[in-house]
Design brief:
Blueprint: E1 6-8, E2 13-14, H1 15-25, H2 47-55, H3 66-81
Antiparallel strand pairs: 1-2
Bound molecules: FE2/S2 (inorganic) cluster.
Length: 89
């Protein structure tokens, strides 16, 4: 993914904003990533990615295209409707 691609699609928060937030604020808990424009407080799809950014803001970006990421989120939403548990912090 590219820096301006959206990680939290619910709240339109980009990878760049999240990485900069994590570098600047050094959150001690992954749930604190939600203080960056409410990231992760919607459907929960992005939470595993927020956890990775919080743990290592200088780490490798998700190795998928933004369109694949959005497609996988759509599949996650179908699974939620079918009863799968929402991702959580
Ligand atoms: S994509 Fe982040 S909460 Fe839905």
């Amino acid at each position: 993914m590219e820096p301006d691609d959206l990680i939290c699609l619910c709240y339109r928060v980009s990878l760049r904003k999240l990485v900069n937030y994590a570098r600047r604020e050094r959150p001690s808990r992954a749930s604190q990533m939600s203080q960056c424009l409410d990231a992760g407080t919607g459907c929960g799809w992005c939470i595993p990615f927020l956890k990775r950014i919080q743990a290592d803001p200088d780490g490798v970006a998700p190795a998928m295209s933004a369109s694949d990421y959005a497609r996988d989120r759509a599949k996650y939403h179908v699974r939620l409707r079918d009863g799968e548990t929402k991702h959580g912090y």
